[in-house]
Amino acid sequence: MSTVTDPSPEVTRTRRAKPRLSDRSRAEERLGWKLAMPAFVVMLLVTAYPILQAVWNSFFAYRLTDPANREFVGLNNYIVSFSDSVFWSAMWATVLITVITVVVELILGFIIALVMHRIVLPRRTLRTIVLIPYSIITVVSGFTWLFMYRTDTGFVNRWTSWVPGVSENYDWFGSFWPSIFVICLSEIWKTTPFMSLLLLAGLAQVDTSMEEAAKVDGASWLQVLVKVILPNMKPAIMVAVLFRTLDAFRIFDNIFIMTGGANGTNSLSGLIYRQTIDRTEIGLGSALSVILFLCVLAIAALFVRGFKVDLTQGRN
């Protein structure tokens, strides 16, 4: 004869501790889905077919110049990609550029956001000036930085000839690290305003009464920053870092313009371009595109889980 045992007190407490959404929260959630659904359906229709087509093409040995010899090869394109040193070189350059640019942009963007948040008189003028680099087309920006650092048309070498190791004939695009330096510098210059605007929106959400209370309790400016401002900016920081990381991981324009992928500076997007456009290897290029897509999804998932931001906090 079987017996039914009562749940343990720990299980009971866990069940009771589970938050329950109020009627207002449910209504807001339904409204959010209704407002987002049209855009979601349009984006799904526009993006679903290219994604599925890329996945399908990745299973074939398929050259655009010879469509009659299309052959099913299964996962061979992925095996070839992962076993090629060129792929790992492009992955290394992509990750390196992403880490350097995002970290520097986060620091600089936060400093600029603090200045724009605290300043009183020319606030709108300052925000407009800060946005100028971000408003320039990436191709135009890339050519500008290229001309600045070239030995025949640039002026950077003349201005920095006093730096050890730099002369008027120094070739910034002749080796890996100088090329990476210029590429990262151009990315940081252009996209830091984007980061600063997102962080400025987060600063505007911080309750000033909390800062004043911390100062009354004797907290220093650094303690207020670490204990009050940054924790309350966590959602904004997550959005800014996530968006910028995904954008930096897909870098193509500046590398294509400045180095063309030479000296080991090619990115994953540049490698995809080389396979699909230059070599017309649609199958292999599609496999690389799928790999890049999965990397972007993995980055987004890691950021969302890592930051552990509750966007519904404070809802009644």
- Side by side, the strands of the main sheet go 1-2
- Helices, by number, come to 15
Which range does the strand content fall in? under 5%
Radius of gyration: 25 Å
- Global shape: flat
CA-CA gap between termini: 47 Å
User: Which whole number gives the mean pLDDT?
Assistant: 84
Number of strands: 2
Helical residue percent?
Answer: over 70%
H/E element order = HHEEHHHHHHHHHHHHH
What class would the helix/strand composition place it in? mainly alpha
Q: What kind of sheet is the major sheet?
A: 2 strands, antiparallel
Residue windows where pLDDT falls under 50 for at least 5 positions: 1-6, 11-16
Please explain how this structure is put together.
The chain has 316 residues and is mainly α. Helix content is 70%, strand content 3%. It is built from 15 helices and 2 strands. Strands 1-2 form a two-stranded antiparallel ribbon. The radius of gyration is 25 Å and the shape is flat. The model is unreliable at 1-6 and 11-16 (pLDDT under 50). Residues 1-23 are annotated as: Disordered. InterPro entries: MetI-like, MetI-like_sf. Keywords: Cell membrane, Membrane, Transmembrane, Transmembrane helix, Transport. It is a multi-pass membrane protein. Belongs to the binding-protein-dependent transport system permease family.
Give a quick rundown of the structure:
This is Sugar ABC transporter permease. By secondary structure, the chain is mostly helical.
Structure characteristics:
membrane, transport, MetI-like, transmembrane helix, two-stranded antiparallel sheet, mainly alpha
